[in-house]
Amino acid sequence: MSVSELARFLEHCSDRPDVLARYERMALPDLMFAARCDGFDLRTGDFGTLIGGMEVWRITVADGQPIDGESRLWRAMWGRSRLDYIVHELWAPMDAVVRNTLVSEAENG
Q1: For residue 19, what are the contacts with CB-CB under 8 A and spacing of at least 6?
Q2: Vertex 75, ends 106 and 20: CA angle to 5°?
Q3: What is the pTM of this model?
Q4: pLDDT, tens digit, 9 for 90 and up, residues 76-107
């Protein structure tokens, strides 16, 4: 269920630039603490699980590329915070069906 919380958190960040700006410079432990104070029950392991799935989907399905050092997505993360990359390059461009599928796979996989 905590993967769903991470999805809810990412959606909140994508809807609210002020929230993203508040969280994006925090180290992961600080981000998780602040998010819990704001009502999001985040778990460390869920980040890798969901984000990894989103990166694989983005590279192989959306971009139609092999996963290697030449993938366009890797260049998209340069010069920005990790959270900004996750929200704007992975989460926001996906439609709701893809998001729900990836969240379900991460929770049940």
Answers
A1: 12, 13
A2: 60
A3: 0.91
A4: 888 999 999 999 999 999 999 999 999 999 99
